[in-house]
């Protein structure tokens, strides 16, 4: 190769290297363009999301306008919160628009790079295809920019329209609030909820205890509160935001004496749903209390202030600026008094300042000193009523934990002049009677020698006293929770108190409990997958399908009846029959769900073994726990519900089951006998027949009842449907029970007035 050829080769080689560099550079630019195109697609996607956000804003605003028309006098706070949320959403959308604009500015830089790349390409010998590609990309960038600008313009227009609408909404809302406040001053007191009047009552009681008003003025104001006097309401509303003294003065100016046909009733109890619930007692206190309040009575509750209670279920919880001193074990102890409303009822919570920390135990019952704890509480509850100088008509105490109230009232406080009230005592279960050595009565100031007698408080066991017996002897009214149970406890069911009950039979009555029909309502139950009613049973089958799927049970045969059981696994509930029911249901080709656990270790282990035995059976499920949400679903999903109790003072599950269209199969005892009537019993009117019953606590009796239920379910579906609908329409509310209680209260109060 000559020197000239070598030189030419080197030049070509250098040009090729430059060309290779240009190609490499161009490839990099093409990659950038590709990335730019991807970014532009993302921008377009973001624009679509912004469009969706705008549509959501429009929907939210339309919903806000619709809801605004429903604004009531008590709803404006919620509307203000909704407006604030909409404003936050508007601000967020504006920020997104600004962010999108910044991205667009970045794309202008991309276009500049494309222009430079085009110039670079023109200076090289790269193929026309690349020039065409660059031009095409420029057009795409321009098109996307134009679309984005149009979208941006439309978005700004929508935002301006929305801002204008928000201003109009604010103006309208302010006008509605003013009109609402004006109307609230004009309407009569009946328009205010029970929660409002409970709060007023607690205010008055707090002022009385704190000596800010006289006892006489407090009694007058309480009377006005339970009559729901509109003047009292107007005084409260017009004094909002003012000093407490001004509010007190405005109340006192219009306090005029009056009379009321309603009663002042105070329940002293160890439980109340939902704030402190262990068993059915808690449901009785809240359910009966609300029903009596609806009838125009002033109802108040006194509870211990447990450390473990559900504080989030109490509204307006506050401590009073007063300390109630009470006697115990030869000394005086201070007690803090807290007030709040639960389920619309005014409640007093007693917090002892006793070194024993009686209610700081992380549980309600089961302590070694329960007798001392609740005798202390009973004494303070009466001391609170005495010091507040309330004119109470009825003091209603429940179970052995507050049975001390009856002898304390008549042997201690009546002697101090606090004697206008009459005592009602309800025993919810005679299995629990509160026995202790006689000398333990002295803790709360009761006279041991006076009470340790066979006709007063001495138990059948030598050297012990029985506080339930004392309450029966000392109370003006004694009740239990069903008529049949009242008959049963006059014999062996009384657990040693049958003779005492016979002696005091004239004041002893059984009143069937009700259920909270607001909580247990299949047409509104938030725990159900589908709400339903007696007139539309589709939701029942839908809930059955949902529950069996949730529990991984078979759903292949929709005609299989589902048997439910929700219970504590204790001997009282007939655990041997529950065990048998599982196997019998499987034998009959049905499905079975058990929800519940046992505090008895060997029973819990036994059912755990049964659960293991059926773990691969897709028709049987044993859920050995308690789950409130799941209980609602089981009531709704089950076709039949078993309650094979050995004894059952009242029972609530059979009533709830019927309300949810689950036909009960129960043993004829206690409250079960008063609420479930056999479908095949021709001695009973057809309109009352609502389930299947058996008498003997054996497998044969249970089998007969369950087989009859299965027979109707499979062979007479129309008859079964009519039975389900009839059961759902039965009124198990507290209204009937409350009327019966109100009647015996009134008669006792009338006798008290006649005696003065």
Automatic annotation (TrEMBL):
Domain Glycosyl transferase family: 555-680
One GO CC term on file: amyloplast
GO BP, sorted A to Z: starch biosynthetic process
InterPro entries with a match to the protein in the record: Glyco_trans_1, GS/SS, Starch_synth_cat_dom
Location(s) in or outside the cell: Plastid, Chloroplast; Plastid, Amyloplast
Residues in coiled coil: 40-103
Pfam families named in the record: Glyco_transf_5, Glycos_transf_1
Pathway the protein takes part in: Glycan biosynthesis; starch biosynthesis
UniProt keyword annotation of Glycosyltransferase present: yes
Catalysed transformations (reactions): [(1->4)-alpha-D-glucosyl](n) + ADP-alpha-D-glucose = [(1->4)-alpha-D-glucosyl](n+1) + ADP + H(+)
Chief place where the protein resides: plastid
Enzyme class per UniProt: transferase
One Gene Ontology term of the molecular function aspect: alpha-1,4-glucan glucosyltransferase (ADP-glucose donor) activity
Keywords: Amyloplast, Chloroplast, Coiled coil, Glycosyltransferase, Plastid, Starch biosynthesis, Transferase, Transit peptide
This protein's record includes keyword Chloroplast: yes
Domain Starch synthase catalytic: 264-502
NCBIfam families hit by this protein: glgA (TIGR02095), PRK00654.2-4 (NF001905)
Protein name: Starch synthase, chloroplastic/amyloplastic
């Amino acid at each position: 190769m000559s020197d000239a050829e070598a030189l030419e080769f080197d030049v070509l080689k250098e040009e090729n290297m430059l060309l290779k560099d240009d190609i490499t550079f161009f490839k990099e630019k093409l990659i950038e363009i590709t990335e730019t195109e991807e970014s532009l697609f993302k921008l377009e996607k973001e624009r679509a999301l912004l469009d969706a956000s705008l549509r959501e804003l429009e929907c939210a605003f339309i919903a806000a306008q619709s809801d605004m028309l429903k604004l009531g006098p008590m709803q404006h706070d919620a509307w203000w919160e909704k407006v604030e949320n909409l404003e936050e959403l508007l601000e967020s959308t504006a920020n997104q628009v600004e962010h999108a604009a910044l991205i667009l500015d970045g794309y202008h830089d991309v276009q500049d790079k494309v222009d430079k790349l085009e110039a670079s390409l023109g200076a090289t010998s790269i193929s026309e295809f690349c020039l065409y590609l660059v031009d095409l990309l420029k057009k795409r960038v321009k098109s996307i920019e134009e679309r984005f600008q149009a979208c941006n313009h439309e978005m700004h227009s929508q935002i301006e329209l929305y801002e204008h609408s928000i201003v109009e909404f604010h103006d309208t809302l302010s006008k509605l609030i003013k009109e609402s406040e004006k109307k609230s001053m004009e309407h009569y007191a009946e328009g205010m909820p029970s929660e409002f009047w409970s709060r007023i009552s607690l205010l008055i009681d707090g002022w009385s205890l704190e000596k800010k008003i006289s006892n006489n003025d407090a009694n007058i104001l309480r009377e006005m509160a339970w009559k729901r006097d509109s003047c009292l309401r107007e005084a409260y509303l017009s004094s909002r935001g003012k000093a407490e003294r001004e509010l007190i003065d405005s109340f006192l100016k219009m306090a005029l004496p009056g009379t009321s046909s309603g009663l002042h009733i105070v329940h002293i109890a160890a439980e109340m749903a939902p704030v402190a619930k262990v068993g059915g007692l808690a449901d009785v206190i809240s359910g009966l209390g609300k029903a009596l309040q609806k009838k125009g009575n002033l109802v108040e509750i006194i509870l211990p202030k447990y450390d473990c209670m559900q504080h989030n279920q109490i509204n307006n919880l506050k401590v009073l600026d007063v300390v109630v001193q009470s006697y115990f074990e030869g000394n005086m102890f201070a007690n803090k008094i807290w007030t709040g409303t639960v389920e619309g009822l005014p409640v007093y919570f007693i917090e002892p300042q006793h070194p024993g920390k009686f209610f700081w135990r992380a549980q309600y019952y089961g302590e070694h000193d329960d007798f001392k704890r609740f005798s202390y509480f009973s004494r303070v509850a009466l001391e609170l009523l005495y010091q507040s100088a309330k004119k109470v008509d009825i003091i209603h105490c429940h179970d052995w934990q507050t049975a001390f109230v009856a002898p304390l009232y008549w042997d201690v406080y009546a002697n101090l002049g606090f004697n206008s009230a009459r005592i009602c005592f309800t025993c919810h279960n005679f299995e629990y009677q509160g026995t202790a050595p006689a000398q333990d009565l002295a803790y709360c100031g009761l006279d041991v020698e006076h009470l340790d007698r066979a006709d007063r408080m001495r138990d059948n066991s030598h050297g012990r006293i029985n506080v339930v017996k004392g309450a029966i002897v000392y109370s003006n009214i004694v009740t239990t929770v069903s008529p049949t149970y009242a008959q049963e406890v006059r014999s062996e069911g009384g657990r040693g108190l049958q003779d005492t009950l016979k002696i005091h039979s004239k004041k002893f009555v059984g009143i069937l409990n009700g259920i909270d029909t607001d909580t247990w309502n299949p047409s509104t139950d938030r725990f159900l997958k589908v709400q339903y009613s007696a007139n539309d049973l589709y939701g029942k089958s839908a809930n059955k399908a949902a529950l069996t799927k949730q529990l991984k049970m078979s759903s292949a045969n929709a005609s299989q009846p589902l048997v439910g059981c929700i219970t504590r696994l204790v001997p009282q509930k007939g655990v041997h029959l529950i065990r048998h029911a599982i196997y019998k249901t499987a034998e009959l080709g049905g499905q079975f769900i058990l929800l519940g656990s046992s505090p008895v270790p060997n029973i819990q282990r036994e059912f755990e073994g049964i659960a293991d035995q059926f773990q691969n059976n897709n028709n049987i499920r044993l859920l050995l726990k308690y789950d409130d949400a799941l209980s609602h679903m089981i009531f709704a999903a089950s076709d039949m519900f078993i309650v094979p109790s050995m004894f059952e003072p009242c029972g609530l599950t059979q009533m709830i089951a019927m309300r949810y269209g689950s036909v009960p199969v129960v043993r004829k005892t206690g409250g079960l006998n008063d609420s479930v009537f056999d479908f095949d019993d021709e001695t009973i009117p057809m309109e009352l027949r609502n389930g299947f019953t058996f008498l003997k606590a054996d497998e044969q009796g249970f089998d007969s009842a369950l087989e009859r239920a299965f027979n109707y379910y499979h062979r007479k579906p129309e008859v079964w449907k009519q039975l389900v609908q009839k059961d759902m329409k039965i009124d198990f509310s507290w209204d009937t029970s409350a009327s019966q209680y109100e009647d015996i209260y009134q008669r006792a109060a009338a006798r008290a007035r006649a005696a003065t």
